[in-house]
Design brief:
This protein is α+β, with helices and mostly antiparallel strands. It folds into 2 domains: 37 residues, no CATH class; 310 residues, DD-peptidase/beta-lactamase superfamily (Beta-lactamase, 3-Layer(aba) Sandwich). Helix content is 24%, strand content 20%. The chain is globular and about 60 Å long. The two termini are 36 Å apart.
């Protein structure tokens, strides 16, 4: 058999083996079946340093003539920052309107994915089980609904946005705001009650949410930033960080929950978190949005839309999407991370907007 070089290319869910036959001028020797696998690993920037290796657009055969129109569009649409990583290396990094690489900005609901990740970490460390009732950790009466209905709400219900609680009562998560609409698991609705997972983790670990987050995730992958109390009653936490910190998190997710040689979050949990989690909204995992599905729901509506959330974007893309167009796009097939932070591109929005599709038209003009 002729020698083969095996390139193992790692993405979010599986391994693709690309076999390239090596052609010789002479006939291959009989019985020669040795192969030497070459593993293409992602680059990880060092922790505690501004050093971050780069890759040129030319090396990727990108259309460099379309880069300035993309940047002009981003600036026009009130962006603060924009980063593209490929193989973990920076290909594009730009800041607008006085923002810099050291300036913090809020993640808004893109930070839901941080909570989902920490929930997986707490489970792998044996502190919680996502299938347990929320009341097992917070005690009964954490909502205003009848006990038999409250007991249907599990930690997983909060990850799936299927708690059945009323999503029309504002952003707060006080007991008075947590009222019954449907049994848990029978209705999908975008609701801030997911932050109760942070309380669950505090109760289970015996430490503060911020300390547990910092020690198990932030510091391990070299992020900076902090959770800041938000909301009228201060019962919500919003993460603030630099754009590069957001990119570090996306890179960890792209690499199946690993940072360099360390497993940060269980790969199987992360796979579950980034695939369809329930039948009602095919385009939602565990607080992650999923592209390329046949239908989707949006915040503040029970209407089911047909088609992919971002039809112009890659079909395997998973997304952390926050209010006013905070974006983490993770594209396993391209080994790519795209980050956008800033003011709303157009109107104030909860997570998704027409900006997503328009932006991907501009990005595709560069990368395709």
């Amino acid at each position: 058999m002729c020698n083969l070089i095996v390139y193992k290319k790692k993405n979010m869910r599986n391994y693709f083996l690309i076999l390239l036959p090596i052609l010789f001028f002479s006939t291959c020797a009989s019985g020669d079946n040795d192969s030497n696998p070459i593993t293409v690993e992602s680059y990880f920037p060092p922790n505690g340093s501004d050093v971050w290796e780069t890759k040129t657009p030319k090396s990727l055969s990108w259309n460099e003539t379309q880069m300035q129109p993309l940047l002009d569009y981003l600036e026009l649409k009130n962006s603060k920052s924009f980063i593209v990583l490929v193989d973990g290396k920076i290909v594009m990094e730009h800041y607008f309107n006085g923002h810099t690489k050291s300036s913090p900005w809020y993640w808004a609901s893109a930070g839901k994915t941080l909570t989902a990740t920490m929930t997986g970490i707490a489970q792998q460390e044996g502190f919680i089980n996502i299938n347990d009732k929320v009341s097992d950790y917070l005690g009964t009466g954490w909502t205003s609904i009848p006990l038999e209905k409250e007991n249907l709400i599990t930690n997983k219900s909060l990850l799936l946005m299927s708690s059945g609680l009323n999503d029309a009562l504002g952003d707060g998560v006080s007991k008075e705001n947590l009222q019954y609409v449907a049994d848990a698991g029978t209705r999908w609705a975008y609701h801030n009650v997911y932050v109760k997972l942070q309380d669950v983790i505090e109760a289970a670990t015996g430490t503060t949410w911020q300390n547990y987050f910092n020690s198990r995730l932030r510091d391990k992958i070299g992020m900076t930033g902090a959770w800041i109390a938000s909301g009228d009653s201060g019962d919500l936490n919003v993460y603030w960080s630099t754009t590069r910190s957001m990119a570090r998190f996306g890179l960890m997710v792209l690499n199946n929950g690993k940072w360099k040689s360390e497993n940060i979050v269980n790969e199987n949990y992360l796979i579950s978190a980034t695939t369809t989690s329930q039948a009602i909204n095919e385009s939602y995992g565990y607080l992650w949005w999923l592209n390329g599905k046949s239908s989707y729901h949006l915040p503040q509506t029970q209407f089911e839309f047909t088609g992919s959330i971002i039809p112009t974007g890659p079909s395997d893309m998973i997304m952390a999407l926050g209010k006013n167009d905070q974006k983490i796009y993770v594209i396993p097939s391209k080994k790519m991370i795209v980050i956008r932070m800033g003011e709303p591109a157009d109107d104030v929005n909860a997570a998704l907007s027409t900006f997503d599709s328009e932006l991907w038209i501009k990005i595709n003009a560069v990368i395709d």
